[in-house]
Task: inverse folding
């Protein structure tokens, strides 16, 4: 139904100032103001039943938002943080995270959708023009504001009542600190956990693909093997956290091709072990050039030379890959001779 189908007496009255004056082109103003187009009435403007339907729709969206907010609070309180659910086709997810995201997203979406539907169907859509005016106040208004401010400052005795002034400043400075308490729910501080991994003296190197301990003869010259600490299993609750720090790249080079003395000393028969975690933003490194002994991070193309202490030769990475000192145990398996000497991965604020 359009406004042409409604009797003239049923249409809302137009405001005289709604469309502004239409300009006329001349030599001084070749681009005349064409004015606003004729206003088209919406169905809600001329049919109260349609307006009521829009009102109920907006109220329904706001009600759903309220229920979703209540669901968010209930989920936060009742769902265990370690509970998981299967969501097709995504897979297994944290039940708490899924519930919080779904309910909060629904609450925010319904508020936005309700506000937009309210504005588009029930609020006035008549365009109104207004002439620009100077932004600054008149001189007499500015003078009065300045006089009022000076009078108020004098009557407050802020300069003379130093005890009040100092305690007020102290209160205003301290009250924002209460907001820091909200940071407690972000989790415990990392402390020194970012400086240490599961690697320790005597910990065997286990092949990530076969889940078997590695012997020197298992690593061919020019090959790239990924390893993890013995005892770390994918079923462990902290697997992702620990492997993100402990993942290793195992490469065997000809001892004569190793340029860095410390790298040679920390290797075993040309087998070197470096952190797999890029020192730029922590991506896993997996691309190896056998001829150049370079490894490439697929995220931002940081390139490291494994024959020269894994130093950075290209890209945004800030420092070389940490090396793990390795040897063999009494049974002939490759083992770590300690933890990394420096933290793995990108720099962090606690890092000295």
Result:
């Amino acid at each position: 139904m359009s406004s042409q189908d409604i009797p003239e007496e049923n249409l809302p009255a137009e405001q005289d100032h709604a469309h502004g004056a239409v300009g006329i082109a001349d030599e001084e103003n070749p681009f005349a103001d064409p004015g606003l187009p004729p206003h088209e009435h919406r169905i809600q403007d001329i049919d109260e039943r349609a307006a009521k339907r829009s009102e109920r729709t907006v109220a329904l969206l706001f009600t759903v938002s309220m229920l979703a907010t209540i669901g968010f609070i209930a989920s936060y309180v009742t769902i265990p943080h370690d509970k998981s659910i299967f969501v097709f086709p995504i897979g297994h997810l944290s039940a708490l995270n899924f519930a919080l995201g779904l309910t909060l997203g629904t609450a925010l979406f319904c508020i936005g959708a309700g506000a937009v539907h309210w504005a588009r169907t029930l609020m006035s859509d008549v365009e109104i023009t207004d002439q620009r005016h100077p932004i600054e106040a008149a001189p007499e208004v500015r003078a009065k504001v300045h006089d009022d401010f000076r009078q108020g400052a004098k009557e407050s005795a802020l300069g003379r009542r130093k005890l009040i002034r100092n305690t007020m400043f102290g209160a205003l400075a301290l009250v924002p600190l209460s907001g820091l308490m909200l940071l407690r729910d972000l989790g415990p501080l990392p402390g020194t956990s970012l400086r240490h991994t599961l690697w320790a003296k005597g910990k065997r190197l286990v092949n990530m693909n076969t889940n078997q301990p590695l012997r020197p003869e298992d690593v061919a010259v020019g090959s790239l093997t990924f390893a993890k600490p013995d005892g770390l299993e994918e079923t462990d609750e902290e697997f992702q956290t620990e492997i993100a720090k402990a993942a290793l790249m195992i490469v065997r080079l000809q001892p004569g091709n190793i340029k860095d003395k410390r790298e040679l000393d920390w290797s075993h028969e040309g087998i070197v072990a470096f952190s797999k975690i890029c020192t730029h933003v922590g991506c896993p490194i997996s691309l190896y050039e056998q001829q150049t002994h370079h490894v490439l991070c697929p995220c931002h193309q940081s390139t490291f030379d494994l024959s020269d202490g894994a130093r950075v030769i290209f890209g945004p990475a800030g420092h070389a890959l940490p090396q793990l000192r390795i040897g063999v145990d009494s049974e002939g398996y490759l083992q770590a001779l300690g933890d990394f000497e420096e933290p793995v991965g990108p720099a962090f604020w606690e890092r000295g």
